[in-house]
UniProtKB/TrEMBL annotation:
Residues 125-246 form the TXNDC16 second thioredoxin-like domain. The gene is txndc16. Pfam families: Thioredoxin (PF00085), Thioredoxin_6 (PF13848), TXNDC16_2nd (PF24509), TXNDC16_3rd (PF24510), TXNDC16_N (PF24508). It comes from Carassius auratus. This is Thioredoxin domain-containing protein 16 isoform X2. Residues 361-455 form the Thioredoxin domain. Residues 732-776 are annotated as: Disordered. Residues 742-752 have a biased composition (Basic and acidic residues). Residues 21-124 form the TXNDC16 N-terminal domain.
Length: 776
C-alpha cells in the first residue's frame, strides 16, 4: 500500500511539471477522432471571456484525471477550424459534448460541468450509463435487488448534489468495481426513507452495501450495511475491502458465535479476526482474551466479558472521536457551499444538473418570434432568465403544461431566454421574471396573472380557448349557458358563470363589459345577453338593468347585482369580487383574493367534510350567514385533507392542533390576536354569535398570536440591505409597511354593488391579486 501511495504521489508531482493532457484538435484530427471509436469529451469555443476562462482551466485539470480512464479531453478552436454543426448556433461556447467515435453520448451545459469534479463525475456516469442504475423510488431499487439476488451484491450511493467530490468518488469506484458489484445511484429522499434514514432532508452523501449475492429466496430482503464515514475514494475502497472480507476468518477453537455477533454489529467499521491462543505471535497475558488496534495506534489488550460490552466500547468511546473528526470535515466541506437565501433557490441549486426536456416548447429567437406568435389561435410565451431561481423552478411546470397540451389544435407553448434575446424582452416590455404572455392574432398580448404552477396555468390556457364573452341571443341560450349544454361543455374548468344583462346592444355599458370580458379571458367564463328579454331575469328583484347574474351551478340560487357605469378595469374588479363565494373553502390558490377583502376571518378547520361533526359545523355557520349577521366577517373553512398547510397554520395560531372541527377568529383590526371558540361549548349558531359578541366586547382572551411575518435573511451574509446601509446610512433601511384600511392603501371612494338590497364593497380597481402568499 505504501508503494502505491508513493507512486501516486510521484505521479502527481511529475504531472504538474509536464504539459497538460488537454488536446487541441484541428478539423482533420477531429475527423480522424470521429472514426477512431474512442471516447472523447470535447469543447467547442471561439473566444474567451472570464467565465469561459475558468471553465477551460477546469477542463485542463480534468484531462489529466480522465486520461486514467481512457477518455480524451479535447478543445476545438472554432475561430481556426469551423466544425459543422458544432461551431455554429446559439449553443456555441455554452455546451460540451461526450463522443464515442462519431456518436454523441450526451451534451452538457458548462454550468453543469462547472469544475474538475463535476466533469469527471458526469463523464464517468454517462460512460457507465448501462452499468450504473439510476433509481428514483424504493420500488425501482427493489427491482434491482430482485435481479441481483444470487448473482451479485449492490452498492447504493445517495448523492444529494451531483457534480461534487462525493459524486466523483462514487463514479470512480463504479469504474473500478463495476464488474464485481451492481452500482446504484439515487438523489431523491424517498430512497433515503426506504433505507431507514431518520432525517432524509440532510445534505450528506451516503453509501450502502446490499448483500444480495447470498440471498437465495426472491421473497427475502437483501441485508444492508451502511458506510458510516465520509464518502470519499479512500473510504469507499476501504469499506468495499471490508465487505469482501469474511465476517469471521477460519478458526478452530474460539467461540464462533460471539465473534459472529460482534462482526455483524460492527460490520463496515471494525474488522473481527479470531486468533489461536497458541500462536507464537500472541504475546498477551493470560488475563486478556481480546485486543484491538485503532488506526495509527498500538495494540491494546482487554478482557472480553460480553459481545454487548465490546460493541458499546467501540460505538460510544473508541470510534466516537473518529466520527466527530469525520463530521467536522463533512460540515467544513458543506459550509463551502453557498447557503441559498430561499427555498426556491436551494431546490433549483440542488437540481441544477437535471436536463430539462424542452422538446414540447418552442425556443424563440429574434428571427422566429413574430411569425410564431401570429400563426396560431393562441401562443403562450414564457419569458425567463436561466440564472433566476423562480424561473427555473417554474419552467418545469411550464414543460408539464406543454406536454399536456401537445397536439391540441391552435395552441402552442414557447419560451424566450431573456439572457440571450434581450431585444425581444425589451420590445415586449417584459420587466419582471418569469412572465407569461398570451398572444392571439390581431390582439394585444394578455398577461397571465395566476399562480406559477402546472394546474393553474393549464386551466388558464383551456379557459382562454372559450369565447369571452359568450354572445347569447335568447332566454333559452341563457338557460343553456347557466345550467344546460353550454354549461356542461366547460363544467370541468369552473362551475361559476357570470352573465351581463343589458336591455339592448345599444346600451352604453355593453362596450366596457366586452372589454372587461377580454381582460378576464382565461380566468372567468362570461356571457353577454343584450336583449329585451333580459328584463325577465331581474324581475321581482330590487335590481334594475344593466345587471350581473352569477350562477354557481345547477340547483344553486342565482345571485343578481346591479351593474354601474364603470371603466373596463373597474368592471374587472367588480366581476372578480362577485365571483367570490360567501362561505368559501380557502385554498392556496384563492387565498389572496379573499384576503384582499380586508375582513376579519371566521375560520373553521375540518378534517373530513363528510363527518357528522363537520357537516353540522358547516351548517351552523351558514345559518347566521344567510341572515346577514356575519357581513362584517369573512366566514370560511379549510379542509386539512385537501389543503395540508392548514394544519401548520392552526399549529402556528394556537401552538397545538386541537380536536377537529375547530373555529377560530383572526385578523381583527385591533391587533394580531387569534381567538378560539371554546371547545366545551356546542358549535351552534347562537353560541357562535354570542362568542363573536364576547370577542368584540373584550370579554374573551386570545388563544394565540399571528406569528411575526418578517422574512429576514437566513444568515448575516445575505442581509444585503444592511450592507448597503453601511456604505450609505439609512439608504436601504427597511421600514414597516403602511397599515391598510379595508384591504387597500389608497383612499379612493369605494364603489358599491347591491345584492338583494345589501351593500357590499368591492376591492380596489387593481385586477391583479397579490401573487405572493400572505400570512393567514
Amino acid at each position: 500500500m505504501c508503494i502505491v501511495y508513493l507512486a501516486a504521489f510521484l505521479f502527481s508531482l511529475t504531472s504538474e511539471q509536464c504539459s497538460s493532457k488537454l488536446i487541441e484538435d484541428s478539423s482533420q484530427s477531429f475527423m480522424e477522432r470521429m472514426h477512431s471509436g474512442k471516447t472523447s469529451f470535447i469543447y467547442f469555443g471561439n473566444h474567451v471571456n472570464p467565465t469561459i476562462k475558468l471553465f477551460v482551466e477546469q477542463l485542463v485539470m480534468s484531462a489529466d484525471a480522465l486520461q486514467d480512464y481512457g477518455i480524451s479531453v479535447v478543445k476545438v478552436n472554432c475561430s481556426k477550424d469551423a466544425i459543422a454543426n458544432y461551431c455554429t448556433g446559439e449553443k456555441l461556447m455554452t455546451r460540451a459534448y461526450l463522443f464515442r467515435g462519431s456518436e454523441v453520448l450526451r451534451s452538457f451545459d458548462i454550468d453543469t460541468v462547472f469544475d474538475v469534479n463535476a466533469i469527471v463525475s458526469h463523464v464517468l456516469f454517462s460512460v457507465l450509463f448501462n452499468e450504473v442504475r439510476y433509481v428514483h423510488t424504493p420500488a425501482e431499487l427493489l427491482r434491482v435487488e430482485s435481479t441481483a439476488k444470487q448473482n451479485s451484491d449492490i452498492v447504493v450511493g445517495h448523492i444529494p448534489v451531483l457534480g461534487l467530490p462525493e459524486h466523483r468518488a462514487l463514479m470512480e469506484a463504479a469504474f473500478v468495481y463495476g464488474t464485481k458489484y451492481q452500482f446504484v445511484q439515487t438523489t431523491g429522499t424517498l430512497v433515503l426513507k426506504h433505507m431507514g434514514v431518520v432525517d432524509p432532508s440532510s445534505s450528506q452523501a451516503r453509501l450502502w452495501f446490499l448483500h444480495c449475492k447470498g440471498v437465495s429466496r426472491r421473497s427475502d430482503p437483501c441485508p444492508s450495511t451502511p458506510m458510516r464515514k465520509t464518502l470519499n475514494t479512500i473510504n469507499i475502497h476501504t469499506f468495499l475491502q471490508l465487505m469482501e472480507a469474511p465476517l469471521v476468518p477460519q478458526t478452530q477453537h474460539l467461540d464462533r458465535a460471539t465473534a459472529q455477533t460482534l462482526a455483524l454489529q460492527l460490520r463496515g467499521e471494525v474488522g473481527v479476526v479470531l486468533i489461536h491462543r497458541d500462536s507464537p505471535n500472541v504475546k498477551a497475558a493470560l488475563k486478556y482474551n481480546a485486543a484491538y488496534r485503532l488506526p495509527q495506534e498500538d495494540v491494546t489488550y482487554f478482557t472480553l466479558n460480553s459481545a454487548e460490552g465490546v460493541v458499546k466500547l467501540f460505538k460510544e468511546e473508541l470510534l466516537q472521536e473518529h466520527k466527530l473528526e469525520d463530521e467536522e470535515e463533512d460540515e467544513e466541506h458543506w459550509s463551502d457551499l453557498d447557503i441559498l437565501d430561499d427555498e426556491v433557490s436551494e431546490s433549483v441549486y440542488r437540481d441544477r444538473d437535471l436536463m430539462l426536456d424542452l422538446e414540447s416548447v418552442i425556443e424563440l429567437t429574434s428571427d422566429t418570434f413574430q411569425t410564431t406568435v401570429t400563426q396560431n389561435e393562441i401562443t403562450v410565451v414564457l419569458f425567463y432568465f436561466k440564472w433566476d431561481a423562480v424561473c427555473m423552478a417554474f419552467i418545469q411546470s411550464y414543460i408539464e403544461v406543454a406536454d399536456a397540451l401537445e397536439g391540441m389544435n391552435g395552441v402552442k407553448l414557447a419560451a424566450v431566454n431573456c439572457g440571450e434575446w434581450t431585444d425581444i424582452c425589451s420590445d415586449q416590455n417584459v420587466t419582471s421574471f418569469p412572465t407569461v404572455l398570451i398572444y392571439r392574432p390581431m390582439a394585444e398580448a394578455q398577461l397571465y396573472r395566476g399562480m406559477l404552477g402546472t394546474k393553474c396555468l393549464h386551466g388558464f390556457i383551456l379557459l382562454s380557448l372559450v369565447s369571452s364573452p359568450y354572445l347569447l341571443s335568447s332566454s333559452a341560450e341563457v338557460m343553456s349557458f347557466l345550467e344546460g349544454d353550454l354549461y356542461s361543455k366547460h363544467m370541468y374548468l369552473t362551475p361559476v358563470r357570470v352573465l351581463g344583462l343589458f336591455s339592448s346592444t345599444h346600451d352604453m355599458g355593453v362596450t366596457p363589459f366586452e372589454e372587461a370580458a377580454r381582460l378576464l379571458r382565461g380566468e372567468t367564463i362570461l356571457g353577454l345577453f343584450a336583449h329585451k328579454e333580459a328584463e325577465q331575469w331581474v324581475e321581482g328583484l330590487s335590481v334594475n338593468l344593466p345587471a350581473l347574474l352569477v350562477s354557481r351551478g345547477p340547483g344553486v340560487p342565482h345571485e343578481v347585482y346591479s351593474l354601474p357605469s364603470s371603466s373596463p378595469t373597474d368592471l374587472v374588479s367588480l366581476i372578480k369580487q362577485v365571483e367570490l363565494d360567501r362561505f368559501p373553502e380557502l385554498t392556496v390558490e384563492n387565498l389572496p383574493w379573499y384576503l384582499e377583502l380586508g375582513k376579519p376571518l371566521l375560520l373553521l378547520f375540518i378534517g373530513k367534510e363528510d363527518s357528522t361533526e363537520s357537516t353540522k359545523a358547516l351548517a351552523e355557520i351558514k345559518r347566521p350567514l344567510s341572515s346577514g349577521q356575519l357581513d362584517s366577517f369573512l366566514p370560511c373553512w379549510i379542509h386539512l385533507g385537501r389543503t395540508p398547510v392548514g394544519r401548520s397554520i392552526l399549529e402556528k395560531y394556537l401552538g397545538f392542533v386541537p380536536p377537529l372541527p375547530v373555529l377560530v377568529m383572526s385578523r381583527l383590526k385591533t391587533g394580531e390576536e387569534v381567538f378560539l371558540f371554546p371547545p366545551e361549548r356546542p358549535l351552534m349558531a347562537k353560541n357562535i354569535l354570542q362568542w363573536i359578541h364576547d370577542v368584540q366586547s373584550g370579554h374573551e382572551q386570545p388563544a394565540g398570536l399571528i406569528p411575526d411575518g418578517k422574512w429576514g435573511p437566513p444568515v448575516p451574509f445575505f442581509d444585503f440591505l444592511a450592507i448597503m446601509d453601511q456604505e450609505a446610512p439609512t439608504y436601504a433601511a427597511q421600514r414597516a409597511p403602511k397599515m391598510k384600511t379595508g384591504g387597500r392603501e389608497d383612499h379612493r371612494e369605494q364603489k358599491h354593488v347591491t345584492q338583494n338590497q345589501r351593500q357590499t364593497p368591492h376591492p380596489s380597481p387593481n385586477p391583479q391579486a397579490p401573487r405572493q402568499h400572505s400570512e393567514l
